[in-house]
Amino acid sequence: MRSRLRDTPEGLDIAMFGVPLDLGSSFRSGARHGPAQIREMSRLIREVNYSTKIAPFDLCDIADIGDAPVNSLDLDASLSAIQQFVQTVLSADARPLAIGGDHTISLPILRSMAADGALAMIQVDAHSDTQDLMLGKKYASGTPFRRAVEEGLIDPRKTVQVGIRGTLFSADELDWALAQGITIIDMDEFEALGAADAARKARRVVAGSDCYMTFDIDALDPGVAPGAGGLEPGGISVRQAQVFLRELRGIPIVGADVVEVSPPLDPSGGTALAAANLMFEILCLLAESHSNASD
Amino acid sequence: MRSRLRDTPEGLDIAMFGVPLDLGSSFRSGARHGPAQIREMSRLIREVNYSTKIAPFDLCDIADIGDAPVNSLDLDASLSAIQQFVQTVLSADARPLAIGGDHTISLPILRSMAADGALAMIQVDAHSDTQDLMLGKKYASGTPFRRAVEEGLIDPRKTVQVGIRGTLFSADELDWALAQGITIIDMDEFEALGAADAARKARRVVAGSDCYMTFDIDALDPGVAPGAGGLEPGGISVRQAQVFLRELRGIPIVGADVVEVSPPLDPSGGTALAAANLMFEILCLLAESHSNASD
Amino acid sequence: MRSRLRDTPEGLDIAMFGVPLDLGSSFRSGARHGPAQIREMSRLIREVNYSTKIAPFDLCDIADIGDAPVNSLDLDASLSAIQQFVQTVLSADARPLAIGGDHTISLPILRSMAADGALAMIQVDAHSDTQDLMLGKKYASGTPFRRAVEEGLIDPRKTVQVGIRGTLFSADELDWALAQGITIIDMDEFEALGAADAARKARRVVAGSDCYMTFDIDALDPGVAPGAGGLEPGGISVRQAQVFLRELRGIPIVGADVVEVSPPLDPSGGTALAAANLMFEILCLLAESHSNASD
Amino acid sequence: MRSRLRDTPEGLDIAMFGVPLDLGSSFRSGARHGPAQIREMSRLIREVNYSTKIAPFDLCDIADIGDAPVNSLDLDASLSAIQQFVQTVLSADARPLAIGGDHTISLPILRSMAADGALAMIQVDAHSDTQDLMLGKKYASGTPFRRAVEEGLIDPRKTVQVGIRGTLFSADELDWALAQGITIIDMDEFEALGAADAARKARRVVAGSDCYMTFDIDALDPGVAPGAGGLEPGGISVRQAQVFLRELRGIPIVGADVVEVSPPLDPSGGTALAAANLMFEILCLLAESHSNASD
Amino acid sequence: MRSRLRDTPEGLDIAMFGVPLDLGSSFRSGARHGPAQIREMSRLIREVNYSTKIAPFDLCDIADIGDAPVNSLDLDASLSAIQQFVQTVLSADARPLAIGGDHTISLPILRSMAADGALAMIQVDAHSDTQDLMLGKKYASGTPFRRAVEEGLIDPRKTVQVGIRGTLFSADELDWALAQGITIIDMDEFEALGAADAARKARRVVAGSDCYMTFDIDALDPGVAPGAGGLEPGGISVRQAQVFLRELRGIPIVGADVVEVSPPLDPSGGTALAAANLMFEILCLLAESHSNASD
Amino acid sequence: MRSRLRDTPEGLDIAMFGVPLDLGSSFRSGARHGPAQIREMSRLIREVNYSTKIAPFDLCDIADIGDAPVNSLDLDASLSAIQQFVQTVLSADARPLAIGGDHTISLPILRSMAADGALAMIQVDAHSDTQDLMLGKKYASGTPFRRAVEEGLIDPRKTVQVGIRGTLFSADELDWALAQGITIIDMDEFEALGAADAARKARRVVAGSDCYMTFDIDALDPGVAPGAGGLEPGGISVRQAQVFLRELRGIPIVGADVVEVSPPLDPSGGTALAAANLMFEILCLLAESHSNASD
Lengths: 295, 295, 295, 295, 295, 295
Hints:
Six copies of one chain form a homohexamer. The first copy, chain A, is an alpha/beta fold. Chain A has one domain: Arginase, Chain A, CATH 3.40.800.10. Chain A is built from ten helices and nine strands. Chain A has a nine-stranded parallel β-sheet with strand order 1-3-2-4-9-8-5-6-7, sandwiched between helices. In chain A, α6 links the parallel β6 and β7. The longest helix of chain A is centred in the C-terminal third of the chain and has 25 residues. The radius of gyration of chain A is 17 Å and the shape is globular.
């Protein structure tokens, strides 16, 4: 994006960074290369949002501070390193905007961000990612929000998952999430409501709390985002995602991530382009939210 | 898909199989490799339909019984061999779900299935495939349903074609089909009705008869299914296809095919992924229909 | 397309030709190869429009007269050569349908066509292309319609731009165009109106004047047209473009172009296929318009 | 190539033409699209051979006369049509240079060319293509030279096959060819001799007779020609093929073909580029040979 | 390959199996998908080796017994599972031929195979893979043969590494291996000797002991094998590899693997095709070696 | 490469930089994206040359100082800007190593470097690039070394061109270069000599003068470098290029460039990988040469 590069988050309002880790992927990996390709495709983006006219780089001090340190052979060590890295961002009073990486990376980010209490969360995703175990493991791309609820990082009654539609391992796969109070706007409901009304419903769920936003690129239809870790045909369009995100203006978003872009699975870069575009939309939300908070 | 492999259809309720033949394609061939790629992409599909909660493998005994024997240098011999192969499936009291191959393969399947009388049929397709001759030939990918009507395999008054939109060789190209009583829900009507109402109209056409379902992947928009034999921009989305298919629950579907996926034209596998996903939707219909019939 | 090849425009009603030039592209070039790939993909198109039943080759004398002479090392010389080439088309009483090339090529075409006064214009595009300078240059792919207004080639009060949505260099980037009286139906309005009503609004803008049509392929969503010079996620579908174009029947369209297809950026040819399909829709409009004028 | 297009072979010394047929391929088809892609890639070739300084277009009257008429649904009809088409070329006193298509097409060409007696032949290929039957069929891409010997079209004692190396269906697969007197310079011998000495040995085999040249692109290594119908790792390089062909100067080559380029299997066009380059080398041989004969 | 599928190794002479694990890759992963793609490409291989006329399926009882059980989220558990799986192969008196997976998988295979003492080993590879640690980890794709020497699984004085050429982390990176007595025929020496003489030197190193063969596909030049985990330009050709392997006939090879094919990095499958071809060459060696041992 | 990023050349011994310009390409453009892709692929390269054990980053102070300022719509302005940029590098006493860009960029670099007199030059290339005009223009990718000789930037008697082989526009195309005294080691001679002896001959040509090195990636065979601007089948391998370059140790190389890598023509990055590898080889030469000069 048209942002400066920086070595540290000092003095920034919003710090963007990559998290090149995909050790949590059980099948289609490659998201470790996501940050590089999304940065490259972000060169096509200009300064001002056409629809909202938000100019994030005018509103806030924003920079790309490089990649979080990860060990691509060691998941546990990487989770700690990411958490610590985000801590330095927060200590500098900057809000984090992370580029994954697989969905596991949301967990260490939330661990840093929820130091003062559980956050609200908006998750756009084809899957709930609230399984207990994945291949017998507690930390993997299918489990981060189970852990986040268990650890008190997010408040399930203020958590909304949007775009859920994947085929299921079992018919009761989502029961745990629903029992915790998580709101699920699945694909059928999303289509029935339309993107704008779906956003309005999401707003009501998270109202009153600082909110984290996580966007799994597999929420998009595989026709437009074939380079996702998971692929669930019948997803939302980029246009729908844009309308949804723009309708969230005003929510106090304090951090965000975009995850699961796997360049080896889409060398043409279309998936990364969509991700870069949606990151820009989220950056506009973050910048306006920060700017409002500072007033 | 998450099904077992079997050598024979004995004991099965539903037998899936490939038909690796594309000798009926006059221009963009390659559908002979469709079964292999669709099988590979089907590994991304889990056990339970998110929207309908149908779990086909719980409802029925289902297996992949491999490929029908075809001779990739001899169309006539292949048509006979396919018909005979499907006969063994039916003799085992299993319902066939075929993976093409080009659209010619529907004809020998229908020849086996219509032994006791003409079937109703739902065809999702960009083209009517009711030409009399193609390059002077009676058996080719553009003619199977002309032959099927002539041979009494399908009842044209109980046949509905959905998604038709291709540019035409002549303005009267569809007159024969309409004169036979075939119902055409073309792309303009499909959009005007919406996918769910289009399905309801289709239900009315086929009501009261055992029904065959054939899905030509070129019904989808080339943006999401570039690896189709024919490519007609302006097609339906996978989401629309899913909604259409799910609205067909309850119809006595007795056999089905998905055809015209050509892997060499889409090595990334997006087309095959969409086909695998729609096959799963059709499998859910077949399984529920069989289960209902057995009660 | 199923048209004849001709060496000269003599005796033709509509002359199609390529303009293999991309010296006006500042970032993603390659549109110089557009004509070749669009011709190749146009082989999939048949003779008759499914929805409107227009058969352009029956209505008019149409041929492909090859490529306009350009010098791929000299932008100025090329602009002159294109203008002169179009002059020979017009002198033969044929209407031009050009295949780009980058968007700069519209300017020399308009210079030839507007000899008798400013034209109305319908522009389908993600960007307004009315910047004053691009990298300090007056002639480039982002400036042709600023020049066309300045030179009196198009009447801004009879000019409508459809599908505009790209991120902006500055919040006032479109102020000049609006101040001239250009009507902008941006993406948000296009979606709110629907494609058919957007077309009806466009008709009202251009009513009463001979009209030029220019279609930048980046108006389409990058998911379906990744091989465009610019890429702006969240665009229109081919289906929407078809509905929009078909609703323009009856307008006196006197010339047209389709631009910015860059084959190196989409070797699979999906973008060129969409372009060929939309060219056929525009050809139907041109042919019917010419036929009406001749009656 | 930098040749003119012509409608008929009248007045030409050498007539190049496409044969877009792949009905003889039993597994990896797509060669029907070979002529189009090879023509496109041939635009990179200039007028004069660097090494031999032969300028074929100066030596002879050469043109591309389009494609032979084939029926892509009917192999037998196509074989007749090709034979007849070549007959018109020969009747015009032109020498044919064909672009395949699969290897089956050499047979009808030879049937026309051998009207006055069996020809000598140089075949560069990974396979001998002298099987008796392929999937039970007499006419297919693996059998043309069995048929050609049986029909007296080529003289086996004056036939040399170069580059043979494919894994075999049985250990005695080549016994028939050897028993007829065909000379096989297999890959091991080709490497041991070097390309130039291999050519000298080939010259000795065909000495004294008019010679046909057939080049199956699978003779090249799959690393450089992945878009071949058959793929046999461990093949010759383009450089070796160039040296081999250049060393054949002076042989009375009266006709030739380059076959088995399948664009869907190599959309990047590298295989077609290699084929176009080798066609140019063969064209140089044909032109010099024709020029010598005319002196 | 043209082998049967089997559920167990019982009764087999040679058991082929996949090891879909790439958790040992620190940078370019994807080798977990190697077995599937290599199996697919192996369909192009016939029954008999052209050069040696070895027909492995006639000599031995050979089958593909599927994939070793691995946990794609747990490297340690996977190493144990692979070792145990190979144990069942050996217990059935079959010789293992594994398809990787990244190079880490050689270690658990060797742990099973070296139960009765250290083996000789021939390693074809661009890298020595004898680092002590990789990103601080003892088990990874760059360390297996350091571990294998330390654990006494291979005898370094009877180990030869062929094709080594990668840029180094430090100038003394290979000192440990050389100090242990490992023989390195690096790329410069391989070229100076030629493939056949390099094989003869390798034979002398391993003479007198049961020998394991491991082939890292990155030994090949990236031009022919771009889908390798590591990529070191300037490698050996498939032809050179074939000549090298064929010259090893007579050595008592008791097990082998081919590793590091990463399909996402080469969706066209050329790398997997080369791997399948070289696996066939190794299978011929294994089969002849087993057959000799049984006489 | 494993080098630091720097904003200025101050304090460096060798300054690497990109020149993202392809306005000099008349046909296959895209080299403007070369620097980005080569940088990305250079991440696979480690610190020490395997064969020569040269560790350039230990010998010299080396950094990547970003891209030279170019205007992608203005060739003349860009040539001036490049020349000025290189001047700043030289003023800082650093030696330039440029990444193109098309071959036109060598001219402004030489203009800066030859301030004190004509340089010797080694050019590895498929074409001589000494045409007088290209499409009527004096500055283009086919003319830089005609200009360089005319302007006295290089001494033709101390200039050697290696790997020349492209088909020619006319048989006398190279006469001018030869008349000036340029030495041409064409592909035939390169193969006859072998890479090492070709290098020794090149050394003799440039002996005694400061030498510039320019490497056009189209010197490599298109099988390994398909993403080149020009493509001439039958080229040198990366291995041959490595051997050639390593044999040039000791020559006083004072600057260099690697040009014509066009990422859109090879999105897989194989061409850029080869270019990065050869850049490392050249960097080793530059570093050792600088180090020798400093002793």
